[in-house]
Design goal:
6-stranded mixed β-sheet; 7-stranded mixed β-sheet; alpha/beta; 23% strand; 478 residues; binds nicotinamide-adenine-dinucleotide
């Protein structure tokens, strides 16, 4: 496969003519070439986006709706092709990639309707004045996304940015560029006006940095690691850019003594290991009431060991390959750290070499116990198929352990006690709390994290507000 930049409606090589290798993580082999772009491509993309902005920003909402819907249909029509590309590129099982392609198309469809529905407020100031708020598009905005849910998170930013009337310079992760390339083809197929969406491939410190530093890209929507987010904030802050930062997590999954235990365990297997544990919302710290601890431990170990790890294209596979060699090594090094910190590995804890995929980057679903809440294993993001088990005696103790991290993205709570569910949810320092479910998404809800997990929220009107500039107009009535 040859991945190309998409600038001003054209698929093209990087200006400097350089490209870099892209790996299939299940095989550990190079399978594609990706443009190794730099600031020159970002500047071209900006110029194209700026030239397209005057027409796109005033295009009637219904026309924007038609284009965004057409992109959704374009993804739907080529769903299997997109899913296969995502699975080969990222390492995730094909069946899971297929679900994500459905959801990526839904992102475009959802924000197509948002373009039609988004409205502003007015405030009558007694009989003296009428105030109203104009929500105007910003101009050219930048969208930067990570490798774990490549097209899903890419479209989650691009769709609202376009729906709100902006034109876009976007950068997918250099580890997973394939579906962004296919999206460029869909944009050509549906005749999206040139320059409305521009996609530049390449390394974060070159392409991403050039986007953040560009003096006229006025807003940056970023999803990725907390360290990268800090760096972006330090660069963009003094330029007074609008910033939305969706960062890392260390999510607790809390099972109370009154939980529906079978449902909790069944979902917790997914919460822990879906997408190889590489979902920012995965629960990596499992807190269990002491009365259920042995049962939950036994079941989690049994079920983790039973998960089929291997060929991402095989329907039976539950856990695919880890996205890249550096990340694979990072996850394995955290398992070693857990052992050094006194953790007992109850399941997994090692690399796997499935038949036919001996050179791929696979890690067995790993369950660890015996660690306190303050150790590095329990406070740093691992972002792989690794969970720790801890027990608690009281609700207060569970809350204290759950909140004992710098991160605040998502928490999952299992209890049949209604009062406790509400009380506990309100006290958790996390942007998202699931009660008796996980990853049950409604695209209208605010999405994002507290503390070091981010700044701002995505989703629904939150995203439309981020991608617009509010202007108060006050008209005197006397
Ligand atoms: P990353 O921070 O390494 O990279 C994310 C993106 O930023 C990539 O496109 C990368 O090329 C780019 N980038 C890197 N350096 C840059 C720079 N100096 N300037 C601008 N852009 C730069 O993250 P990753 O390893 O790709 O993704 C994993 C992380 O993403 C995890 O921490 C995970 O928790 C987080 N994540 C968060 C959410 C959320 O919604 N909060 C969702 C998914 C993933």
């Amino acid at each position: 496969m040859k991945v190309l930049n998409f600038i001003n409606g054209e698929l093209q090589e990087a200006v400097n003519g350089q490209s870099m290798d892209n790996y299939n993580p299940a095989k550990g082999e190079v399978y594609a070439q990706v443009p190794d772009s730099d600031h020159q491509d970002v500047h071209l993309a900006y110029d194209a986006a700026q030239a397209a902005y005057p027409n796109w920003s005033v295009l009637p909402a219904e026309e924007k709706f038609k284009y965004l819907n057409a992109i959704a249909e374009g993804i739907d029509k080529r769903r299997d092709e997109f899913a296969l590309a995502e699975s080969i590129d990222q390492g995730k099982p094909f069946w899971l990639a297929k679900n994500e392609m459905i959801r990526s198309a839904q992102n475009f469809r959802f924000f197509a309707t948002a373009a039609m529905q988004f409205a502003s407020e007015s405030h009558a100031t007694e009989d003296r004045a009428i105030n109203y708020t104009l929500r105007q598009s910003i101009g050219v905005v930048g969208c930067i996304s990570p490798w774990n849910l490549p097209l899903y998170l890419f479209s989650w930013k691009i769709a609202p940015a376009l729906a709100a009337g902006n034109t876009v310079v976007a950068k997918p992760s250099e580890f997973t560029p394939a579906t962004a390339h296919l999206l460029s083809e869909v944009c050509q197929e549906v005749g999206l006006p040139h320059g409305v969406l521009n996609i530049v491939h390449g390394l974060g410190p070159k392409v991403g940095q050039a986007m953040v530093e560009h003096p006229r890209i006025k807003a940056i929507s970023f999803t990725g690691g907390t360290a990268t987010g800090k760096h972006i904030a330090a660069t963009a802050g003094p330029m007074f850019k609008k910033l939305s930062l969706e960062l890392g997590g260390k999510n607790p999954n809390i099972i109370f003594e009154d939980a529906d235990i079978e449902k909790a365990i069944k979902t917790t297997v997914n919460t822990s290991f879906l997408n190889q544990g590489e979902i920012c919302l995965c629960g990596s710290r499992l807190l269990v009431h002491e009365s259920l601890y042995d049962k939950v431990k036994e079941e989690m170990v049994k079920r983790a060991k039973a998960l089929v790890v291997g060929d991402p294209q095989d329907e039976k596979t539950r856990v695919g390959a880890i996205v890249s060699k550096p990340h694979y090594e990072k996850v394995l090094s955290y398992i070693e750290l857990a052992k050094q910190e006194g953790g007992r590995v109850l399941a997994g804890g090692e690399a796997l070499h499935p038949e036919g995929f001996e050179s791929g980057w696979f890690i067995a679903p790993t369950v660890i116990e015996g660690l306190g809440p303050a150790c590095r294993t329990n406070t740093e993001e691992i972002f792989g198929p690794v969970i720790t088990l801890m027990s608690f005696k009281t609700e207060e103790e569970a809350l204290q352990i759950a909140n004992a991290t710098e991160y605040g993205l998502a928490a999952t709570v299992w209890t049949e006690n209604l009062t406790r569910a509400h009380r506990f949810a309100s006290q958790l320092e996390f942007g998202i709390v699931w009660v008796n479910c996980w990853l049950l998404r409604d695209l209208r809800t605010p999405f994002g994290g507290a503390k070091s997990s981010g700044v701002g929220r995505e989703g629904g009107w939150e995203a439309m507000r981020f991608f617009t500039e509010p202007k108060n107009v006050c008209i005197a009535l006397k």
